[in-house]
From TrEMBL:
The lineage of its organism: Bacteria, Pseudomonadati, Pseudomonadota, Betaproteobacteria, Neisseriales. Keywords: Hydrolase. Pfam families: 4HBT_2. Belongs to the 4-hydroxybenzoyl-CoA thioesterase family. Signal peptide: none annotated. This is Acyl-CoA thioesterase. SUPFAM superfamilies: Thioesterase/thiol ester dehydrase-isomerase. The keyword Hydrolase applies.
């Protein structure tokens, strides 16, 4: 059964020199940074970025990360990170595909899961805050289940 996608978004970036190793390919740990850059762009698009999360009294730690490397990205390559938000009521779950921006060739697939945690007492939330859900539901392109 296919996952429902509530929102799609993508962002592009160029692989900088300082992200590659001696073989001129991106060191594996930098892919996590690319996910974070893309996720920040998505949150800005929604209008509920990390600054807003903090204002509302929540932090959103990543509690699960899964990466599958398909092909290496290389110095100077323009990449596109395509995101599909697949869960938002109990957690923030995003599926990612990193691909070559020109050819569309898949480079990496990933998934992250984040949960809301109250700043005042550190309590993990089993349902995301209403303010988050309202912001997402009001975003252009949101697709209700």
């Amino acid at each position: 059964m296919a996952k429902h996608v509530y929102l799609r978004h993508s962002t592009e970036m160029e692989v900088p020199f300082f992200d590659v190793d001696v073989m001129n390919i991106v060191w594996h740990g930098h892919y996590v940074k690319y996910l974070e850059v893309a996720r920040c762009d998505l949150l800005d698009f929604i209008g509920y970025n990390y600054a807003v999360m903090l204002e509302r009294g929540y932090m959103w730690p990543v509690v699960k990360l899964d990466l599958k490397y398909v092909r290496p990205a290389r110095f100077g390559q323009k990449i596109r990170v395509e995101m599909a938000l697949t869960e938002f009521e109990s957690c923030l779950k995003i599926d990612y595909t990193i691909c070559d921006a020109h050819s569309g060739a898949k480079l990496t697939r990933a998934t992250t899961t984040q949960v809301a945690q109250r700043m005042d007492n550190g309590e993990m939330q089993f349902q995301t805050p209403d303010c988050w859900q309202d912001a997402l539901r009001g975003t252009a392109g949101f697709q209700a289940a």
